[in-house]
Amino acid sequence: MWRDSVFGIDIGSYSIKAAVVKKSGRGVATIEQIAYEVLPEEARGGTVGSVAVRRVVQNLVRKVGKGQDRVALSIPTSSVILKTIDVDRGLSESALEGEVQMELVNFVPFPLEQVYADYISLGKSAENPDKEEIFVVASRRDLVDNLADAVDVKSIRKKEVEVESFALGQLIEQVKGKRYRETYAIIDIGYKSTVVSIFKGGKILFNREQQIGGYHLTEAIAEAGGMSMSEAEEVKLTNIHSVSGTVLSAYLDTLNEQIGLALEFFSSTNAEDHIETVYITGGGSLLPGLLDSLKEAQPSYKMMLLPIGQEIKIGKKTNGLKQQEVGAYAAVVSGLAMRK
């Protein structure tokens, strides 16, 4: 069970989300509060620790974080190094830390003084009973420090950083149950990229970031209509049906191709792990016709929108967001708020 005192803030390259999730005695999770704010155009895709980002975070904390003093933040999976190592069983904590430090030298391409690292035991090695599997996560210090500095709020006393795919894993565990054994994928269609994450039995098997997202559709609308990016963004958000079918089809074809390549690569290297369901989320999932297009392009996969609002309930304090919007925006941030 996660700690109710942690609330999540997901700082993206286009928008920032904040959420509080509560769990009932029966295990039902409810997104009790959520808020969403788009970054100013000049701050999109920029530095996490910019003044504009800090101001938006402060606004969201006022809306969602009252009474909260602990926050969980997400770092992109592409910004961390994940590695499983084998060590001798029964090591003391200090000896284990020494082993991890020695291994870090072998797979981290930065001086260790520039790196934060954490690790957790996965238990006895399946291949060698005399060994213990240790899962190691490492990231550059400047990336983590900039992320933490973005939350410049006096009431926040503790900041915790979670890998984005691990937050999604918390979500899958809540949707499918803690002891699920099947393989599931989450496709998060964001601003400039689309992230494909695949999980099985509580572990992440695969993560791939494809360089296509809602920004590229805005760019195509601007080019086709001879308008500015801000004008094209407004058309995309408020009058998408006025956009040429040719522009939409070209974007969807490219998106389908990139998603297909990621899924095919996973399947070709993990033949024994059949993907049970592919869940679609992210702001880009709100595009009309997108889900039908994905189903048509990937007929061998069962595809559906992430069932936020069904297995995970939505409370009344959504700060003006509709249920479909909460479902699209809440995946990572609600997973952060479920951090154990």
Describe this structure in words.
This protein is of the alpha/beta class. It folds into two domains: 6-78 and 143-337, ATPase, nucleotide binding domain (Nucleotidyltransferase, domain 5, 2-Layer Sandwich), CATH 3.30.420.40; 79-141, 2-Layer Sandwich (Dna Ligase, domain 1). It is 35% helix and 31% strand. It is built from ten helices and 14 strands. The chain has helices at 51-64, 93-107, 141-149, 164-176, 214-225, 229-238, 245-269, 290-297, 323-329, 331-337, and strands at residues 6-11, 15-23, 29-38, 70-75, 80-88, 115-124, 131-140, 158-163, 183-189, 194-200, 203-210, 275-281, 303-305, 312-317. A hairpin with a 6-residue loop joins strand 6 and strand 7 (131-140). Helix 5 (214-225) crosses helix 6. The mean pLDDT is 91.
Low-confidence stretches: none
Shape: globular
CATH topology group of the largest domain: Nucleotidyltransferase, domain 5
Cα distance spanning the termini? 6 Å
CATH superfamily of the largest domain: ATPase, nucleotide binding domain
Percentage of residues in DSSP E strands: 25-35%
Indicate the percent of residues in helices.
25-40%
Q: What Rg do the Cα atoms give? A: 21 Å
Assembly level = single chain
Largest sheet: 6 strands, mixed
Assigned CATH class of the largest domain: Alpha Beta
Number of strands: 14
Number of helices: 10
